[in-house]
Predict the 3D structure of the following.
Amino acid sequence: MNIQVFASEARLDEACADLIEGLLRVKPRAVLGLATGGTPLGVYRRLIDDYRKGLVSFRHATTFNLDEYVGLPEDHPESYHAYMRRNLFDHIDLPPERAHLPNGNAADLEAECRRYDALIEEAGGIDLQLLGIGHNGHIGFNEPGPALVTGTHVVELAEETRRANARFFRSVDEVPRRAITMGVGTILKARTIALIAKGTDKADIVRRALEGPITTDCPASLLQTHPQLIVLLDRDAASKLSPAALGAAAPGGRTV
Ligand code: F6R
């Protein structure tokens, strides 16, 4: 695993955007796995800036988002469809027909999950998957529990997750109770995974995910098994990592 610790959010965002842009330069038809939430917003801003400067093009790329709420209209401002349009898709040259998210309003949600996995397979699998991490260790919306599901599936959101996401809604009651998410198998199949975390509130879970036992109680801990995991942290999110993990980690990164 490659852990990189950055002195500022801006540096982290820049490094993560560079990772994506570097991939697109060598593989313009790359398949990107994308996340929503607060953490990747700076990365998306950076990608938009670089696109405007002519430094990157998404013309031949394909994207798959991790998840979407069930039952929230696509044009609801907090749907992940709307989030992605607002924060990235509307500002770059990615062809809309190659920007995929699960359809949380499909009449047959099970069929939608199968369709989504098949689409990812057809696209050749995900080259680079961007991930945030929930305070309870969820990745995508794979919540802690006695077992995890491998493929795309419908989940009941943990109360903790609904409370965390209530900041984007008027109240917690408005946060949908279910979502469609890629499964951990789908995520782990990505050729490279970039996990990003920022802030002291993520420090404990980052430590558990990267240094704790591999367990379904912390879905992100499964990432330890991935051969190409890049972890991008700001100093606060890295603050509880052991000296062994951090070593002489200097801003700019260190490999462990
Ligand atoms: C988002 C997603 C979630 C978030 C996680 C962290 O598509 O799948 O796993 O990455 O909840 O959210 P933030 O970044 O808001 O702390």
Residues 35-39, 66-67, 132-134, 138-141 surround fructose -6-phosphate (CB under 6 Å). The radius of gyration is 17 Å. The domain at 2-255 is CATH 3.40.50.1360 (Rossmann fold).
